[in-house]
Design goal:
Elements lengths: L1 E5 L4 H12 L3 E6 L14 E4 L6 H9 L3 E4 L6 H6 L1 H21 L4 E7 L22 H19 L4 E7 L1 E3 L11 H10 L5 E3 L5 E2 L1 E3 H13 L4 E5 L5 E2 H12 L6 E3 L13 H7 L7 H19 L4 H4 L11 E2 L5
Parallel strand pairs: 1-2, 1-4, 2-3, 4-5, 5-6, 6-11, 7-10, 8-13, 8-14
Antiparallel strand pairs: 9-12
Helix pairs in contact: 1-7, 2-4, 4-5, 6-8, 6-10, 8-10
The structure holds nicotinamide-adenine-dinucleotide.
The site of nicotinamide-adenine-dinucleotide has 31 residues, from helix 1, helix 4, strand 5 and strand 7.
Amino acid sequence: MKVLVTGGAGFIGSHVAEAYCARGHEVVVLDSFVTGRRENVPRGIRVVEMDIRSPSVREFLASERFDAINHHAALINVPDSFRRPVEYADVNVVGTVNLLQAAVESHVRTFIFISTCAVYAESRHLPYEETHPVGPGDPYGTSKLAAELYVQMYAKQYSSLRSVILRYGNVYGPRQQVYGEGNLIAVCIERLNQGQQPVIFGDGMHTRDYVYVGDVAELNCRVLEQPISGVFNVGTGQQRSVLDVYATVARTLDAPYAPVFGPPRREPAHVALSSQRLQQATGWMPKTTFDDGIQRTVAWYRTQLQKWDATPAEHSLDPATGADDSARVGNRPR
Ligand SMILES: NC(=O)c1ccc[n+]([C@@H]2O[C@H](COP(=O)([O-])OP(=O)(O)OC[C@H]3O[C@@H](n4cnc5c(N)ncnc54)[C@H](O)[C@@H]3O)[C@@H](O)[C@H]2O)c1
């Protein structure tokens, strides 16, 4: 199949592009590089530098004739979304509508939209199933939910368009950067590796559902190749606390475990996702244990940090705002 991966120069999108390529699909990456990096895109994959909001998207799609679009491009930083809600709505909602409109005009048959567990209303009934009430508590989650509604509306109006919405838990693994939220693992690795302690907001007992990026990429292959449609959670069903994550990273790095606590933030206390619907539809199950995933991530960061040491400012600043969030540790879903 000929597939467009938006956000394919970012953390998760680049793994998906790589996995599609390995399975013999013809892959094109579209990215504005606002946070993405060229070095993330595997060799041999064509890259188009374009903003998903651009009017050129329609012309581009019409000229390329894609079978499918896998839409990962988005702004993803929760605190930043409070500072710039209009831009988050513009990229995450208007950009998605621009892509959807171009997709139907160019007779694209499959649209895979990447959403987040941040669309759910907080409750004690864990793990969340897809029927759990929605009610995001931040502009980022709200923009993702609005975009989901557009995807569903397009699929309803254009019966030739198959749509899949994937609500990810906290994805982690190689190529994740420290600027985003939900990036607890990346921040812990970087800080501990530098001999510093990350600051933990609150008591460290908040939990999230961590899923390894390699498993997520494999899932995206199944979703592309199998004729399923609808909304699906992507998680392990397991909760892991901030302290547990921090301890695992410290152990893997052989670094001291000496948590430093800061004031709590307003964020959901616990998140876990049931992926039963996805398992029934595709047979997918996450395979990577947390310890293995952390080891692979640490191994990758060790090689990268040597490179980054030469230019530290490049990776510790939030590229969107210039704010240095790298020393603070949160655990928000994205
Ligand atoms: N990382 C997580 O834990 C997580 C959790 C839930 C959902 N998600 C979703 O997964 C997707 C990918 O997230 P990620 O962690 O890989 O983030 P990322 O920032 O690494 O990747 C996002 C990519 O989108 C690109 N992009 C942003 N705005 C763009 C625009 N206007 N036009 C074109 N490209 C643009 C960026 O340059 C970047 O390459 C996002 O849709 C995010 O909402 C991520």
